[in-house]
Amino acid sequence: LGSLSAIAQGYFSLHFPINDKSSKTGCSQLFEACLNSADLTEASLRGADLRRASINVANLTNADLRGARFHNTSFYKANLIGANLSGTDLGGCDFWEANLTGANLEGSSLRCTNFRNTIMPDGTIRNS
Asked: What is the DSSP annotation of 83-116?
């Protein structure tokens, strides 16, 4: 059993189990979590349920987010440089002004996802 600790703005820490074998899904349940400004650099949130979460202005550089559920999550101005988002549900997410440089989005659901002023994986800025 591993764990993840994140320091958000230096005021408090968030601590939650990752891959908890006692749960049916074997992954973190963070539905509607508020992780604004959290430093999640190189965090492993594989398969986590982060639907409707707020992850604004957070640092997810090189995070392993494979298979996570982010439906309707806000990533406003989040840093996802090099993050692995392959196979994730990103439907309805808001990546307004986020940085996805080098991120892996292969096989992810992108239906109704907002990429306004977002730096895309190839380094281009998308304005839609």
From this structure: -B-TT-B-TT-B-TT-B-TT-B-TT-B-TT-B-E
Q: How many CB atoms lie within 10 A of CB 97?
A: 17
How far is Cα 16 from Cα 10, in angstroms, rounded to an integer? 17
pLDDT tens digits along 113-125: 999 999 999 999 8
Q: pLDDT band at residue 29, thresholds of 50, 70 and 90?
A: confident
Report d(CA 74, CA 58) in Å as an integer.
10
Q: What angle do CA 71, 43, 31 make, to 5 degrees?
A: 30
The token pair that represents 85 in the structure block:
């988002």
| Structure token digits, residue 116 | 């306004």
> Which whole-number Å values give the CA distances from 42 to 74, 79, 81, 111, 117, in the listed order?
19, 12, 10, 26, 24
What ranges make up the beta strands (E) of the chain? 2-8, 12-18, 116-119, 125-127
